[in-house]
Amino acid sequence: MHAAPMLEGRVAIVTGAGSGIGRAVAVAMAAAGAAVVIADIGVSPAGEGGSSVPAEQTKLIIEAGGGRAVVCGETVSRWDSARRIVETAFDAFGRLDIVVNNAGILRDAIFHRMTPEDWLSVVGVHLNGSFFVSRAAAEHFRRQESGAFVHMTGTSGLIGNAGQANYAAAKLGIVGLSRSIAIDMQRYNVRSNAVAPFAWTRAASAFRAETEDDRARMARLQQINPEHNAPLAVFLASDAARDVTGQVFTIRRNEIFVMSQSRPLRSVQRDGGWTPELLRDHAFPALRSSLTPLERSHDVFSWEPV
Q: What residues does the Ketoreductase domain cover (predicted)?
């Protein structure tokens, strides 16, 4: 007797599911038994243009595999539209169990050249979009006393990367959002986790390699397919992960990492308080070995993908 698929009878929303990691996750969730709302507006990696074609292609892939899916062309970056994405799940399938916040755009620029529009557009899709869709779904999850969120964060936020202040701030904000949802909604049996994926996608291919380090990083990314990220998303959305919440994971091809979260590392104290001079002469000599190096993502993940 075969075990039932891990997501049988469930309904999932996957944002940004028209291509890349979002498509891989949507297809994998459908293969695991979920009906899927493909929420995608079909824009370029920079957020330009718009077409229903990518989402329709994902739908065809899911249906060819015997799954069920519906397309929703609403944007995540506006509250009313996010609510309509959630309503689509109920209109099409009568329920909602899973939200995967994957939609995102890139507008990379060195910080002193980043425009306010670069900032607002990226934060609007990644961080505001994750909040809007999650908040709209939370009303239903609370009433049914169940639900799972999987949010896509990134090592640019967890560790750092050049030219991505907007993206990094949004992605680290998503970690705080996910943790807050996990704490606030634990009483309703609602779980929330964040995943930092690695993959060679349309967005990654827009990155311009200007140094030897950049070219080496791109070569490593090209070995990692979007599909490598899908199994963990399926697992985290399933009842098998009922005791996993508030966590941050990174996937790098066949490697899965649980990431640290901010906790005190080392402290100094002085009964009489501190002066700038005492900080210089005593506190920082003691603390210095615990300061975090100014590394970028590829400095930390420096080895070849396994």
A: 10-206
Residue 262 backbone dihedrals phi, psi, to 5 degrees: -60, 120
Q: Which residue has the tokens 């009489």?
A: 272
188 is known as an active-site residue: no
In angstroms, the CA 55 to CA 36 distance is: 11
How many CB atoms within 10 Å of residue 45?
A: 19
Place of tokens 């704490």: 183
DSSP H/E element including 70: strand 69-72
Distance CA 281, CA 267 (A): 15
Catalytic position from the list 119, 131, 149, 167: 167
Model confidence pLDDT, tens digit, residues 114-152: 999 999 999 999 999 999 999 999 999 999 999 999 999
Gap between the Cα atoms of 40 and 38, Å rounded = 6
**Cα angle vertex 155, ends 44, 57, to 5°?**
30
Domains of the chain: 11-261 (3.40.50.720)
The two three-digit tokens of residue 257, written as one number = 């990492």
